[in-house]
Write a structure and sequence with these properties.
alpha+beta, Ubiquitin-like (UB roll), 5-stranded mixed β-sheet, 5 strands, 16% helix
């Protein structure tokens, strides 16, 4: 079984520019552990100190928000495509 993780540009500086990652994770926790092992600098951007998914990180599986698919209990299927989407805020004041 294999899933593909798309890593957005905003997180690629923590993956040495890697845009895609393939693994055989069966759950979100296994996926994050695989990402932690492959890209240690990415770890603090995925989970907080308690090991919970960061509040402003959205995870999509085949273009569906994982929260609506069962969240942490979702079981990945062969061929799933996962997209990590960090919320990005900021900007400039306009006068």
């Amino acid at each position: 079984m294999s899933i593909t993780v798309q890593i957005p540009t905003a997180l690629r500086r923590h993956t040495s520019g890697t845009a895609k990652f393939e693994c055989s994770a069966k759950s979100l926790d296994e996926l994050f552990s695989a990402l932690d092992q492959q890209f240690p600098d990415l770890k603090p951007h995925l989970r907080d100190d308690a090991g919970q998914i960061r509040r402003f990180l959205n995870v999509y599986v085949n273009e569906e928000d994982i929260r609506f698919l069962g969240g942490n209990s979702y079981a990945f299927k062969d061929g799933d495509e996962v997209l990590l989407v960090p919320s990005i805020a900021g900007g400039a004041d306009f006068i």
